[in-house]
Structures are given as structure tokens and as C-alpha cells.
Amino acid sequence: MKSNTYVYFVAVVASLGGLLFGYDTAVISGAVNYFEKHFALSPAELGWGVSSALVGCIIGSMLSGKLSDKFGRKKSLIVCSIMFFIGALGTAFPVTFSQFVIFRIVGGVGMGIASFVVPVYLAEIAPREKRGALGTFYQFAIAFGILLTYMVNYLVQNSGEQQWLIDYGWRWMFGLGAIPALILLIVSQTVPESPRWLMQQGRDTICLALLERINGNKQRASDVLQEIKNDLNSVKASQGLFAAGFGGVLLLAIVVQILSQSTGINVVIYYATKLLSSIGTGGGDSLLGNIFFQNVLIGLAVALSVFVALYYIERLGRKPLMVGGCVCVAASLLIIGAAVYLQLTGIWLLAVIIFFIFAFGGTIGPLTWIIVSEISPNAYRGTIVSIATVFFWLTNVVVAQTFPMINDSPWLIATFHGAFPFFVYGGLTLIFLWVCLRFLPETKGRSLEDIGQHFHHEARVRNQTAQTSQKEA
């Protein structure tokens, strides 16, 4: 198999973890109205039913760094597929709400591991000139998983009467997720381990052979191997992450993950049916007025948006694309907020929501994971990405848990007419724009080792400057 074909094959297999991520993320939107009635949930309980999976995501994220550093990226991918499979079947057959929550958490653990291991694995195995494009495979898989889920939800929703949906329909929505989980479990056996991880384990010969297969050139493989070795040697004597001067990288990774989720993107994904109903985009007997069909359109926008990132990421670079995305996302949110506040809602607002989804999916969505993996140095990538991913899911929990409360608050509804969440998310996206302009580095066309050494050099300069200032004082 030629090097290009081989790399793309490996990227597609690994990205199936993103498909499961997308499926588990979006399945709740179609099922939420039915299991809410089935279990007779209060608004707070409904928020817990949705966000409980995110608690599992936090647990998975916390475990993922050490798990992948000790056992490898490949074995971590296998573990997450098993958790997805158990979670999908478990949420399809619960007798009580507590059982439902337990299996949502189990599936969430799989999501947490996948959200760490897939982008890290893709970054570590891709040649530098293909790293941006291959990194978008993960987001495309997430987007395709979301689209697949919305299509499944739409088909299930049209397969029976209201009472059947409340009793059984939502179970099918969750249970069908076991099929792609089983596929990932089988095909993940065929991919190699990450060359960077192999090098950290001292498996130079296997690493070199894999690099040669990836790059298609023995000399280039040797050069990359030496780069990795030099990078690891330059920091291995350090006492820890902060002693090595990478505390700033960790902080930037955390802030980027937090603010990417503060856009409220997952409010649309998790609560699509409730959200669209509450702001009045549905209605009538037409296909376009069907809320579940509108979900499919949103899923299609998510899937198509990734091609924007795929086309522009190596042409424009990471930073310009991220800045443009923040501008478009903030504008969309503020327009939605203004329209809802002024009660100028209707089917036209669906177009703005789709643009919001498209703008996020083509920029912030894939770039967040790519950038966080790229700026993290080899020796500390597992630690930095794992910690940043924990904050990604913590933010998700806060957003998912608080949205039903602020969206259904009588005082906020009376004051803002349902627009309050959109103003909050829009304001936070403007803060994200400032962070991108001020602190985000450009990583296009640079090796992971070069990026790591850049931050290491900056840290040394800062330390020397601080020591000089102390002596002069």
C-alpha cells in the first residue's frame, strides 16, 4: 500500500472514534422529548439526563492521558469502542432513570477517551504537510456521526405513533449506536501504533519502519526520527511540565477548549428539537416545518462545513481561519438573540442557525482539536491534551446543565423573551476572538517538534529575562 493511501486509511479508521463521538453527542436531541415523558422528568432531571454523559466524558478525559501514555494510542482507541458499545446497548434497555444515567455515563467515558486519543493519534501519525487535512478527518467523522444520528432519529420518529415513541422509539435511537461501535472495535485492530509513542517507549526500529511507510522515503523517515529523538532528549531531564516551561501552553490549550464550547454549539446539538420548537422555526404540515427534518438539515450543514476546513486549513493557516470563524459565529449568535428578543422568529431563523452551525463546523470545531494537539510538545502531549479535554467536557456539562434552566426561567423569559442564552454565548465568542488574535500561534507547515521547540525556547527566554530582572532589583 502506497504511503499516501496507507496514511489516509489509518486516518479514516481512527476517525471512526469521531463518528461515535458525533452519534453519542447528537442522539440525545431526538430522544430527549420522549424519554423526558417516559420517565416523567423535571427540568433539572432532564438536564442531568443530558449532561450525565458529560460526567463520563470528564472521567474518560482524566483517564485518557495516562491510559494512552502507558498502553498506547491504539489500545486506547479499542477501549473507547468497547465503552461506546456497552453505553449504546445499556441506554436502549433501562428500566429506571438511574439505569439510563449509569449507561449514559459509561458511553460518556468512551466519548472522553475518543475526544483525546483520536486528534492526538492523527497529529502524531500524519506527515507535517498533511497534518491539517488529516486532522479534519476527525471533525468530519463527528459531523457525519451527527448527520447519521439525525437521519436515524428522523426515521424512527416517523416509524410509530406518539405513545410508541415514548415507550420504545427513543430506545432504538440509542441502541443503533452499538453498530458503529462494533465496527470500530473490529477495524481498530488493523491500525499501527503512533510513531511518537513508539519512540517514547524506546522502540526505535519499529518507529523508523512506520515512519518510512508513512512518509514513503527512508531518508525523510530518518530525519523525522532524529527530530523526535532530539525533541524528547531536550526535555526529558526536566522535573515536570511547568519546570520545562510549558505552563503557558497548558493554559492556552485549556482556554481554547473552554471558549470553543462557550459558543453554545452543543446546545443546538443536544437540545435541537426543544430549541427549534421554543424559538418558532417549526410549524405547519410541510416537510421543512418538521422539526426532525430541520435536525437533518442541521446535521447536513455540520457535515458539509468540514470541507471548508479541509480546503482552507493548509491554504490560509490555522489562525486566520479561527479568527474568521469567531467573527461569523459571534455575529450569528447575536442575530439569533436579537431576533428572539424582538420576537421576529419564524422559519427564516433556521437559515441563521444553519449558518452558525456551518461557520463553527468549518473553523472552530476542527481547528480547536488540531491546534491543541499541535502546540503540545511530544513529551507532554498526553498530559496537556488530557487536561485541556477535561476542561472541554467540564464546560460542556455547565452549558448542557444550565441551558434548560435559563431557557425555561420565567423571569428570563419575561425579560429577554428567550434570547438570554444567545446573548451570553455571543459575548463569550467575542472573548474567544480576542484570545485568538492575541495569543494563538500559527502552526501551519511546521513539524510537531519544531512547534514544541519554539515554545521551549520562548520559555527559556522568559526565565532568563525574569532572572535578569531579579538580579537588577
Describe this structure in words.
By secondary structure, the chain is an all-alpha fold. It has helices at about 5-40, 45-70, 75-90, 95-125, 130-155, 160-175, 180-185, 195-200, 205-215, 220-235, 245-260, 265-270, 270-280, 290-310, 320-340, 350-360, 365-375, 380-405, 410-415, 420-440, 450-470. The N and C termini lie far apart (about 65 Å). The model has no long low-confidence stretch (mean pLDDT about 80).
Quick description:
The protein has helices at residues 3-38, 43-71, 73-92, 97-125, 131-157, 162-175, 178-187, 195-200, 204-215, 218-235, 247-261, 265-270, 272-278, 291-312, 318-341, 348-362, 364-375, 381-407, 410-416, 420-439, 448-472.
| CATH topology-level fold name | Growth Hormone, Chain: A
The number of distinct structural domains comes to 1
Percentage of helical residues? over 70%
In N-to-C order, the SSE pattern is HHHHHHHHHHHHHHHHHHHHH
Number of helices: 21
Beta-strand segment tally: 0
Flag low-confidence runs: none
CATH class (first level) name: Mainly Alpha
- Name of the CATH homologous superfamily: MFS general substrate transporter like domains
What structural class do you assign from the helix and strand content? mainly alpha
Alpha carbon gyration radius: 22 Å
β-strand percent reads under 5%
Q: Mean pLDDT score, rounded?
A: 82
Tertiary shape = globular
